[in-house]
Amino acid sequence: MKFKTLDLVALILVIIGGLNWLLVAFGYNLVTLIFGTVPTLEATVYVLVGLSAVYLAVVMPKLGRN
After folding, report:
1. Which of 11, 25, 41, 49 could bridge 35 with an S-S bond, Cβ 3.0-4.6 Å?
2. Contact between 59 and 7 (Cβ < 8 Å)
3. 51: helix, strand or coil
C-alpha cells in the first residue's frame, strides 16, 4: 500500500479531528482553544478535516486493492 502526500495529509487531519472529538467528550476543544479568536480559521480547520474524511472514505478502498 503506497501513500501519496495528499493521502498522508488527509490521514493526519482525520486523526487530529478524531483526537479533538475525544477531547470534546471531556470538555476540551483544541480547535476552539487555538483558533477561537479567528472564527473563519476555526471553520476552515473543520472543513479541511471533514473533506479529509470524505477523501479517505473514497480513496482508502482503492489503496487496499494495491
Report:
1. 41
2. yes
3. helix
Average pLDDT value over all residues in the chain = 89
CA distance linking residue 20 with residue 16, whole number of Å: 6
The Cα 49–Cα 31 span in angstroms is: 11
Q: Has this prediction a pTM greater than 0.85? A: no
**From CA 26, how far away is CA 36, in angstroms rounded?**
18
Does position 47 have pLDDT exceeding 60, yes or no? Answer: yes
**Residue range 14-43, pLDDT digits in tens:** 999 999 999 999 999 999 999 888 999 999
Using the structure block, give the residue that is written with the C-alpha cell 482508502.
60
CA 60/CA 7 separation, integer angstroms: 9
CA nearest 13: which of 62, 40, 51, 58? 51
